[in-house]
Amino acid sequence: MADCIFCNIISGDIPSCKVYEDQEVLAFLDISQTTPGHTLVIPKEHVRNVLEMSESTASSLFKRIPKIARAIQKSTNAPAMNIINNNESIAGQTVFHAHIHLVPRYSGNDGINITYTTNEPNFEVLGKMAEQIAQEVNL
Ligand code: 5GP
Ligand code: ZN
Predict the structure, then answer these.
(1) What separation in Å is there between the alpha carbon of 53 and the centre of ligand 1?
(2) Range of the domain at 70
């Protein structure tokens, strides 16, 4: 896609610091470096995000994550890592070519705060929600 930043990185029209490349996947350092070693892993196929991704693209993308994550960990000595994926603007997606963030973590108080609200569970509501999703998955 001509006006896509990440397609232009894949083609080499925009320079990047590559850390891994094969036929289907490219990994390069995020320009923002949330922490040192912050890497993006992308499919070479232009797809908007995981919500629009085929199983075969997901398979080639996600199967590379552990290998790249371990290489980042070895190179940086980071004891921990967040693996994050944003889908659509409300969820924080700003570049609309699917990507997975690998963010090495060096300390628990580095200013990055990823938390999920905890609510008192309502098992009736949970059960209905699970049923709906389960039906959709099998369609
Ligand atoms: P999102 O917010 O969509 O999940 O993440 C997009 C990421 O792409 C951001 O972390 C941003 O720093 C990174 N990014 C945007 N433009 C470029 C670029 O031209 N080169 C590189 N290496 N990263 C970029
Ligand atoms: Zn693209």
Answers:
(1) 19
(2) 5-137
**CA nearest 86: which of 54, 48, 33?**
48
Question: From the CA of 79, how far away is ligand 1's center (Å)?
Answer: 24
Atom of ligand 1 lying closest to residue 94 CA: 3
Task: Look at residue 24 and give its three-state secondary structure.
Answer: coil
Q: How does pLDDT run across 56-73, given as a tens digit for each residue?
A: 999 999 999 999 999 999
pTM for the whole structure = 0.96
Residue 99 is among the residues annotated as catalytic for this protein: yes
Identify the band that residue 80 occupies on the pLDDT scale cut at 50, 70 and 90: very high
The CATH number of the domain holding residue 63 is 3.30.428.10
